[in-house]
Design brief:
This protein is α/β, with parallel strands linked by helices and 325 residues long. The chain has a domain of 212 residues: Aldolase class I (TIM Barrel, Alpha-Beta Barrel), CATH 3.20.20.70. The chain has 12 helices and 10 strands. The longest helix is centred in the C-terminal third of the chain and has 28 residues.
């Protein structure tokens, strides 16, 4: 199925981005039932057996909900797969993708061609997340159906390109599916992404505080109380540049203004072996200021839809006002 076919099942053109340690099957199901694409990283399931159970659960629950309400617009779901050979579960997880056939597979890092071959065999769609035009062209050469442009300000491993420039560059050589991510937290951001030329918006940070989220209470409250000034972009924790919440860095005993520019911090060498960067240093995007309270995924989606529709009305009114001046 092509992306246009999947979009007919959606109420709002949004993918709830896969978030490491946060996303789970309940979030995915809630997102799809609310009319947006729900997704999760395959490696959030700590073993292949758990991943098998998660994918079975998502498929069976969504199928049952659609059966109970045939008129409902239940969006498709997606799984995020690390396509680099360093992924120790590469083959095992790919076999589970072939078994459960998620409608969309999002690839990160590495060559997506093996994933493309497997997913296309059952009629699924492969979207590759990229941070620049070089990686975008490589993903397309390897057969990816579309691109997720991770622009400046995105939570986690975001890029540095301005979304305006990024979309325009990609559209100069690719007219297929584009998803735009980076610092989006409101309905008007979704509309702006479409106006730029993207098909869908990629939103993660706003869902950190969802009731269904696996984020700790402290993580959630830090996100709620943070603004764009509480975000730092650094490669100090994973070796790859990413956006993090400064309060979590300070809590870990580090000075956010004196982090190493390259490399990866070893907390055991600093006398803090109990601190684990992947768990105790919290990622978030520059749109964190738009996150103000704990809501369910359904409530977040409904609020975004209202903002989105209001933004469209303002644009239409603005055009009319401009035409009469």
């Amino acid at each position: 199925m092509q992306l246009n076919g999947l979009k007919q099942q959606m109420k709002l053109p949004v993918i709830m981005a896969p978030m490491f340690l946060i996303s789970n099957p309940n979030m995915v199901i809630s997102a799809c039932e609310s009319g947006i694409i729900g997704s999760f990283p395959a490696l959030n399931a700590r073993t292949k057996e758990i991943l098998d159970e998660w994918m079975e659960e998502i498929n069976s629950v969504l199928k049952q909900k659609q059966k109970e309400n045939p008129e409902a617009r239940i969006a498709p779901w997606a799984i995020n797969f690390i396509s680099h050979k360093s992924n120790k579960r590469f083959q095992e997880d790919l076999e589970l993708i072939e078994k459960h056939q998620p409608p969309i597979v999002i690839t990160s890092l590495g060559d997506p061609s093996y994933v493309v071959q497997a997913v296309h065999a059952y009629g699924g769609i492969v979207l590759s997340d990229v941070i620049n035009t070089k990686f975008a062209k490589k993903a397309l050469e390897k057969g990816s159906d579309g691109l997720i442009l991770v622009a400046n300000g995105a939570g986690g491993h975001g890029g540095t390109l301005n979304p305006f420039a990024f979309v325009h560059e990609i559209r100069s050589f690719f007219n297929g599916p584009i998803v735009l991510g980076g610092a989006m937290s409101k309905g008007e951001d979704i509309l702006a992404a479409q106006i730029l030329g993207a098909d869908l918006a990629y939103m993660g940070t706003h869902f950190i505080t969802a009731k269904e989220s696996n984020a700790s209470e402290e993580y959630v409250m830090t996100a709620i109380n943070s603004s764009v000034d509480d975000i730092v972009y650094t490669s100090a924790f994973s070796g790859i540049p990413a956006n993090y919440l400064i309060p979590s860095i300070v809590k870990s005993g580090l000075n956010p203004n004196q982090l190493p520019e390259k490399g990866k911090i070893d907390f055991s060498e600093l006398g803090h072996p109990e601190i684990r960067a992947w768990k105790d240093i919290w990622g978030a995007g520059q749109g964190v200021g738009g996150v103000k309270r704990v809501q369910s995924v359904a409530e977040i989606t409904e609020e975004l839809l209202e903002q989105y529709n209001h933004a469209k009305e303002k644009v239409i009114k603005g055009k009319k006002d401009f035409a009469t001046r």
